[in-house]
């Protein structure tokens, strides 16, 4: 007896192969970075991991490793920025937390770091945005599945279990609230509301133009909340209420669309 | 084989023996202590004479100078058992009221105890003129800084005590201290914050005083200020208004649930300081980094030792400066002995408002050959902030008589005659970041609008629900259509018997009208048709119903086209319900 094999269109096969190749290249670069780092070549590792991130792979582990490379290269500001980007994607990773705490002790300015996730979204802190969205989808899916079972029982004349529709409502409301909260978190993150100083020293001025005065000096690795952006500058505020304009090139933000800073 | 337990009374007997015999075996001690070391003229302060392991015959007399009045208040006893050693203390309490400003020396007190003579050293009390304090108010707070209150001209590295004091006359229910930021200082690592509470009597009224003492080390430079500290206090409100607000039942029960309270914020003034760097002039190589006034003494565990065995040289440092991180100066290299230093034991405390530190530094000395061994004295220098200059002290040397022994046989792993574990804390050589993540399958983990996993979680159950709803709706529509067909068939396929034909027509009309009105067919009548159906259909349907009833029960047979009229009406009614 002959079995007829299903025919797969050649174009589909080609697409799959290209997709696999496309996914394999960043993985290979990541692994090259790991090998270089372990061989003591932090600069090569940094370049490899930057390439992976620039190629569109937004992975917390890559950001974390990039932070380590920057640290080894004596750039605590860039390392802190990378680890804080990793913290958004890996909020429960103890290594990320430990390295952030470690490098903050080396930063010259004593400032309370601004939180990425605002206080009114505190329940989002242990969840990455994608995890939060998937949890909302899971809750919604569960509510839909439960509603489907209840409709089926009603159609076949059987009575619905007590509290069934209340459970559907509860899961539905939770799903909607978590979805809205995730959207708010994503919006906050996309504003990149935290700046990390990347240069050894930068002076905050009272205006963007040349007629302002020097207000205070921040050093590499200092973290400040961004309140506004204008003409290549960002307006940052310190925890004690002081504010000042910094050149945009002197800081890196936590905006998820911002590429990693260069050497 | 089971063990036999000793009778229980033996344990009690041993405890009783310990209680009775142990105190008599040790010599008694006596200590004088004041509630505070600074008061104003006319204020009354508590004085305690604590006698440990002994009993005085009667109330001991405490000698005070002429400028003070003392009165015996009472006594209390306490017994403690620690490591099967019983300690019994008797505390005699006095109230002391200074009448003149100055420094009062109280004591010493000589006691003739049953276990032998004991001497309580004298204590001193600073008495300020009456206007020097702010305690005339019901409550208030003040802060001072320095080795002595008010001495805020400091040297870098000097140990000081920040003293925050607040007092009140009303009963304190709750208090929360808001510590200021100590810019220019770091906390002294060997001593913690001390809190004290004592009472004074002023103008015949008791005043409760709370002291918070924070030992600090000056690390800044230049001039600055410690911002105000404050206490958020909740007092029992004993005013007339508060008493009036209390209900009679509250007074009767006095449970305290409805106690009137008032809040108060007691804040101190900022404390300014000036910290000068240590001068380079006069600094010798022996300068150890210590800032303060210190006493040095030393002792050797044995004057005679065999070659290869060790003796311990213990150096005691005591003073009013920080001893954190202190080390013994190295001995000059010698082939006559080897030396091994132990970790210093440093303790700090606040006594009588001043910082006091003690350090015990141990050095094991291992002679390598017999004969007299002279351990040279070592210079140790510190900066005395009270005199503003460097002072060089000396760690006394020692001469050991070294007997013949096996050279090199004794490796020093512990100090002889000391019950100390040989283990030590693992020393940290450095600190680093955590390693990179390896072996990770990387992927784009950003949040996208069409996340396939999220869609997969929602779409199948969503589709299942849609299908269930559609199926349910389809079932309802199908049932209605089947009923329509049945009614139409009933109106068309009539029996041949006349009565049966009329009955079938009546049933068909009722069924169709029931569907149109949404009521059971049996409840349909002319009045309901007239009221329930629209005006273009109701009167005609009611009339037809009447004619059909007349034909069925009146026996007149009705109009000739009655069947056709009924079929048309059934069609019209069913069209209404579609």
Written overview of the protein:
- The complex is a heterodimer of chains A (263) and B (578).
- Chain A is 51% helix and 14% strand.
- Chain A has 263 residues and is an alpha+beta fold.
- The longest helix of chain A is centred in the N-terminal third of the chain and has 29 residues, at 10-38.
- Chain A is globular.
- The mean pLDDT of chain A is 86.
- Chain B has 578 residues and is α+β, with helices and mostly antiparallel strands.
- Chain B contains 8 helices and 31 strands.
- In chain B, strands 1, 3, 4, 5, 10, 12, 14, 15 and 16 form a 9-stranded antiparallel beta sheet that branches. In chain B, strands 22, 24, 25, 26 and 27 form a 5-stranded antiparallel beta sheet that branches. In chain B, strands 2-9-6 form a 3-stranded mixed beta sheet, with no helix packed on it.
- In chain B, strand 15 and strand 16 form a beta hairpin.
- Chain B is elongated and about 150 Å long.
- The A-B interface holds A 26-27, 30, 34, 37-38, 45, 52, 56-62, 64-65, 68-69, 71, 89, 95, 98-99, 102-103, 128-130, 133-134, 136-138, 140-142, 144-145, 147-148, 151-152, 154-155, 182, 186, 256 and B 431, 433-438, 440-447, 451, 453-455, 457-458, 460-462, 464-465, 467-469, 471-472, 475.
């Amino acid at each position: 007896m002959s079995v007829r094999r299903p025919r797969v269109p050649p174009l589909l096969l080609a697409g799959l192969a290209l997709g696999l190749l496309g996914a394999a290249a960043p993985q290979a670069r990541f692994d090259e970075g790991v090998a270089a780092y372990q061989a003591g070549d932090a600069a090569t590792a940094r370049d490899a991991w930057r390439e992976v991130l620039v190629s569109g792979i937004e992975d917390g582990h890559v950001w974390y490793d990039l932070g380590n490379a920057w640290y080894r290269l004596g750039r605590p500001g860039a390392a802190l920025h990378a680890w804080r980007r990793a913290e958004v994607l890996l909020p429960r990773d103890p290594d990320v937390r430990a390295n952030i705490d470690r490098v903050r002790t080396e930063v010259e300015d004593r400032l309370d770091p601004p939180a990425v996730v605002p206080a009114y979204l505190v329940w989002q802190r242990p969840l990455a945005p994608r995890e939060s969205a998937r949890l909302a989808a899971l809750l919604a899916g569960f509510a839909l599945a439960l509603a489907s079972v209840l409709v089926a029982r009603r159609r076949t004349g059987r009575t619905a279990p007590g509290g069934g529709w209340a459970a559907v409502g509860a899961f539905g409301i939770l799903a909607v609230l978590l979805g809205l909260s995730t959207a708010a978190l994503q919006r906050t993150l996309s504003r990149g509301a935290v700046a990390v100083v990347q240069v050894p020293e930068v002076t905050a001025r009272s205006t963007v133009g040349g007629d302002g005065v020097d207000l205070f000096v921040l050093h590499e690795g200092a973290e400040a909340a961004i309140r506004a952006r204008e003409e290549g500058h960002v307006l940052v505020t310190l925890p004690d209420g002081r504010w000042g304009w910094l050149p945009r090139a002197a800081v890196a933000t936590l905006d998820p669309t911002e590429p990693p800073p260069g050497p | 084989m089971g063990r036999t337990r000793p009778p229980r009374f033996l344990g009690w007997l041993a405890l009783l023996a310990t209680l009775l015999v142990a105190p008599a075996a040790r010599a008694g001690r006596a200590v004088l202590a004041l509630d505070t070391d600074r008061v104003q003229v006319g204020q009354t302060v508590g004085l305690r004479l604590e006698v440990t392991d002994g009993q005085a015959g009667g109330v001991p007399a405490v000698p005070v100078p002429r400028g003070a009045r003392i009165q015996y208040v009472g006594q209390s006893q306490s017994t403690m058992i620690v490591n099967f050693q019983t300690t019994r203390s008797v505390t005699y309490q006095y109230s002391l009221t200074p009448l003149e400003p100055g420094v009062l020396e109280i004591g010493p007190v000589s006691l003739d105890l049953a276990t032998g003579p004991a001497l309580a050293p004298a204590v001193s009390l600073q008495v300020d003129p009456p206007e020097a304090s702010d305690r005339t108010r019901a409550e208030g707070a003040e802060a001072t800084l320095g080795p002595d209150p008010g001495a805020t001209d400091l040297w870098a590295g000097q140990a000081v005590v920040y003293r925050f004091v607040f007092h009140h006359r009303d009963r304190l229910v709750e208090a929360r201290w808001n510590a200021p930021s100590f810019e220019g200082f770091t906390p002294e690592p060997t001593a913690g914050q001390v809190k004290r509470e004592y009472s004074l009597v002023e103008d015949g009224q008791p005043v409760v005083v709370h002291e918070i003492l924070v030992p600090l080390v000056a690390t800044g430079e230049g001039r600055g200020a410690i911002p105000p500290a404050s206490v958020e206090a909740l007092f029992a409100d004993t005013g007339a208004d508060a008493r009036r607000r209390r209900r009679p039942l509250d007074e009767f029960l006095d449970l305290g649930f409805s106690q009137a309270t008032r809040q108060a914020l007691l804040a101190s003034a900022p404390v300014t300081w000036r910290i000068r760097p240590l001068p380079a002039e006069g600094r010798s190589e022996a300068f150890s980094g210590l800032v303060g006034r210190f006493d040095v003494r030393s002792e050797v565990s044995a004057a005679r030792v065999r070659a290869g065995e060790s003796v311990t040289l213990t150096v005691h440092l005591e003073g009013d400066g920080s001893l954190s991180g202190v080390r013994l100066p190295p001995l000059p290299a010698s082939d006559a002995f080897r030396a091994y230093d132990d970790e210093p034991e440093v303790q700090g405390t606040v006594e009588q408002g001043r910082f006091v530190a003690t350090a015990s530094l141990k050095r094991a000395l291992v002679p390598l050959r017999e004969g007299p061994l002279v351990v040279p004295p070592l210079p140790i220098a510190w900066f005395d902030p009270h005199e503003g200059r460097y002072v060089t002290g000396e760690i006394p040397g020692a001469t050991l008589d070294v007997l013949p022994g096996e050279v090199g046989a004794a490796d020093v792993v512990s100090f002889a005659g000391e019950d100390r574990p040989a283990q030590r804390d693992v020393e940290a050589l450095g600190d680093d970041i955590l390693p990179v993540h390896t072996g990770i399958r990387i992927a784009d983990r950003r949040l996208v609008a069409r996340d396939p996993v999220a869609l997969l979680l929602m779409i199948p159950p969503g589709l299942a629900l849609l299908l269930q709803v559609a199926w349910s709706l389809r079932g309802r529509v199908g049932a209605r259509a089947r009923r329509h067909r049945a009614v139409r068939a009933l109106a068309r396929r009539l029996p041949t018997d006349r009565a049966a034909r009329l009955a079938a027509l009546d049933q068909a009309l009722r069924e169709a009208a029931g569907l149109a009105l949404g009521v059971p067919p049996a409840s349909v009548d002319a009045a309901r048709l007239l009221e329930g159906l629209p005006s273009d259909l109701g009167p005609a349907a009611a009339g037809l119903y009447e004619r059909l009833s007349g034909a069925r029960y009146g026996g007149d047979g009705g109009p000739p086209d009655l069947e056709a009229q009924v079929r048309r009406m059934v069609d019209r009614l069913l069209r209404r319900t579609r």
